[in-house]
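chain below, 420 aa
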Amino acid sequence: MQKLDRLSFLDTSFLALEQPNTHMHVGSVAIFDGSDMPGGKLDIERVRAFISARLDLVPRYRQRLAWIPVEQYPVWIDDENFDLDYHVRHTALPKPGTEEQLKRLAGRLMSQQLDRAKPLWELWFVEGLPDGKFGVISKIHHCMIDGISGVDLMAVMYNLAPDGAMPEPSTWKPTPTPTGAELVVGDVARRLRSTIDRLSNAGQLVEDSQQLVMRAIRKATAVSASLASGWLKRGIATPLNQHIGPNRRFDWTAMPLSDVKSVKAALGGSVNDVVLAIVAGAVRHFFLEHRSAEPPAEYRAMAPVSVRSESQRGTLGNQVAMWLVDLPVDDPDPLSRYRKVMAATTKLKETDQALGAATLVQMSSGAPITLVSLASRLAAGRRPFATTITNVPGPQFPLYLLEARLEHQYALVPLWENHG
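prediction:
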């Protein structure tokens, strides 16, 4: 019988949040230069064979959801009917094959939810771009991946140099699908192992009691600061926070990272501060120029912060906490806006609010799935923030899919209820 891998509370909440108008997959559009591939073009069967061999390194991609009877808690199990052709798809843009057409295609694909009866990911290989380029549109459910683990997985799926050598074919065989009774027995065994581990560590807990008390005090203080930052307060209504449907539009822009770093070097702070300040200015411009509305005095953004340790790099699942940051969109002075953003993020760091948010998630981790679902939807409905801003560092070195170099990658995160 296969070992049951339960979803964490945070991962489960991303399943619970999904509604007809709220898709909980993360995605991206990558653009590759395929001119050095054999024949100067994409060979989808060769790419599928390459990906199939690499999937041994990321077994989650061949797993689907199952639900423990009675408790109805989700776990990952091997998909006995796994079909790579379903997940790695092939399409082409009509002529002239513009970037705008690629954006529209990505929006249509992101408007469709993933099939929960199958592994929760899709890769769309898109031919038809000029100069031998092709696109890759990815969709992965947020319950199995966060931004940082996604970056690590790119290094698994891609090469660090152009290399047309094909790895050995996969010999993967799925573990037979467990019955309902086996799911229950497996979960009981997990609970027993957890109890035994706690008892085995009882002596160590006594020895470390002082450290535990200090850690508990720090966490309690951080939780208090996190709650006070606005999680219990409903966000104000803005032209961006209206009812949305299931359809999505996907757009992107680009700027040199060196420009962002030059601002940081001149004014202090971090790359994240520069990103937040740029978005604050863009939102202000949107209100004034596109909605003829006065920017609000209070505009709160949610900024995910990775709490993934070095030992967790390359693992799937979510290791993130959430900051709430007040953006000074009512301030007309860019320099003043930047300083206010930097002061806000400094306070968030000093008050350990990433720890506080992560602790709140841990405190909820034993809740029944029905309460997880209810709490997640209530929290989304309250909408304590106006928008999501996430900053995920990309790879610091070239990446290749076989001989094709990755040139650009643009990410997409879910829209919450009433977040346009």
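The radius of gyration is 23 Å. The longest helix spans residues 209-231.
thats it, cya
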